[in-house]
Amino acid sequence: MLIVGASLAGMRAAETLRLEGFEGSITMVGDEPEPPYDRPPLSKEILSGEWQADRTALYRPEALEALELTWRLGVRAVGLDIAGRSVALDDGEVLRGDGVVLATGARPRTLRNAEPLDGVYTLRSLTDALAIREEFLAQPSRVVVVGAGFIGAEVAAVAREQGLSVTMVEIAEVPLQRVLGAEMGAVCAEVHSDHGVDLLMGAAVGSLVGGDDGRVHQVVFSDGSRLEADMVVVGIGVVPNTEWLEGSGLRLGDGVVCDETCLAAPGIVAAGDVARWPNKLFADSMRVEHWDNAVEQGSAAARRLLAGAAGCAGASYTPVPWFWSDQYDRKIQLAGRTREDDEVKVVTGSVDERRFAAIYGRAGRIVGVLGFNRPRHVMLYRRLIASAASWEEALAVAEGDG
Amino acid sequence: MSYRVVVNFDLCESNAVCMQVAPEVFEVRDDDFLYILDETPAEELRAKVTEAVQRCPKQAIAIAEG
């Protein structure tokens, strides 16, 4: 088996192959030189300095050893031959597998029209996180976070906790508007203003301007206004890493397009941030960038390969996407597939105290749940979403549970 | 072979994924703390507990054999 991408989805695929009794060779290809590490702590414990880099390791050395994997780290896959199930690497080597897992992840989107300047960062890798940490320690006089999504929000939260001045800039009128809607987006905004973040909403960044030293010193908005900054962190989403698959014959469209079982072509599956598949539970095509999906889809994709090898049909992959974000002392969790125009109802707790759960409904069904420090309720409603429960049923549960 | 569920409560952040995967074994209550309902679950629950171990975002759960 050949697994392209040695981060969470690829590793869970490898682990699942072993758990399911696969005894053949498994080769892991990864473009980062480090052994597999976990990304959620990067924007939390690593940025704050609470953890040293080595604590992000996904596996203890002996656990990694026990998986008996063959490693190709620090090399990049540059081409896939579907018929031959072979992958060409940038060092000239060509690897072949009976099954191939595509788990090449995604990379941060960058600002258009932005010259390369010092002091401008995106956050995806351990290297990125350590560099931002270094900058924080140097006490920049103003950190500008571009994008009020979850990465931007976590960076802003840590920066404030380090005592730095932070301005968060967002093109929409409230953070996460398209996902959470106006009302709950506004709650997310208040969490940041409560903690002293300056929020600039509805502001489109035009360009970044550097000084003679090659370092960023201003953010210029599309209306011509300017903001002083000596450090900028850009968190405006990610782009799936599919360029290396162009011309391979696989269908690409904001990700590797798979069938409902994560199969992209015979003997070839995709998992994690790079995979797009139709999730039957929501009757919707999805590409999910969450930690939990990398775990679950990595396993599902591995099982799909084994099923195919055994001549069996694969199972449909129908998860309820879920993720968490830690900001200040709040644990924010979102499960499901929410949209801006969904009906939203607070079912427990108090929005003012920032400890509540709200459910999202659409077309007579519960489709999502948002929790602020309410993990039990998020999981309660996540189970309802998984069972395709109606909005009425969800309201009845809320009535009974409070 | 019997097994035991071990949670490192210093790592646990009550994300409650384990409760979603194996509600027979794990419960996060309204106090936001995780409670283990059954430290030595039946063999039939092993697959679920294993999934809970894998899907814990904090790697706070382990299975101890024997």
Going across the major beta sheet of chain A, what is the strand order? 3-2-1-7-20-19
Number of helices of chain A: 9
Rg of chain A, nearest Å? 22 Å
Number of domains of chain B: 1
Q: State which percent range the strand residues of chain B make up.
A: 15-25%
Largest sheet of chain A: 6 strands, mixed
Oligomer: heterodimer
Largest interface: A-B, 22 and 17 residues
Catalogue the unreliable spans of chain B: none
Biggest sheet layout of chain B:
2 strands, antiparallel
Secondary structure tally: strands of chain A = 27
Give the overall average pLDDT of chain A: 96
What integer value in Å does the Rg of chain B equal? 11 Å
Portion in beta strands of chain A? 25-35%
Helix/sheet category of chain A:
alpha/beta
Query: How would the global form of chain A be characterised?
Result: globular
Tell me the number of structural domains of chain A: 3
The average pLDDT score of chain B comes to 92
Q: Care to describe what's here?
A:
The complex is a heterodimer of chains A (402) and B (66). Chain A has 402 residues and is of the alpha/beta class. Chain A contains 9 helices and 27 strands. In chain A, the strands form 7 sheets. A 6-stranded mixed β-sheet of chain A has the order 3-2-1-7-20-19, with helices on one face. A 5-stranded parallel β-sheet of chain A has the order 9-16-10-11-12, covered by helices on one side. The model of chain A has no long low-confidence stretch (mean pLDDT 96). With 66 residues, chain B is α+β, with helices and mostly antiparallel strands. In chain B, strand 2 and strand 3 (34-36) form a beta hairpin. In chain B, the strands form 2 sheets. Chain B has a two-stranded antiparallel ribbon with strand order 1-4. Chain B has a single domain, classed as Alpha-Beta Plaits (2-Layer Sandwich), CATH 3.30.70.20. The chains are: A alpha/beta (402), B alpha+beta (66). The interface between A and B is medium-sized, with 22 and 17 residues.
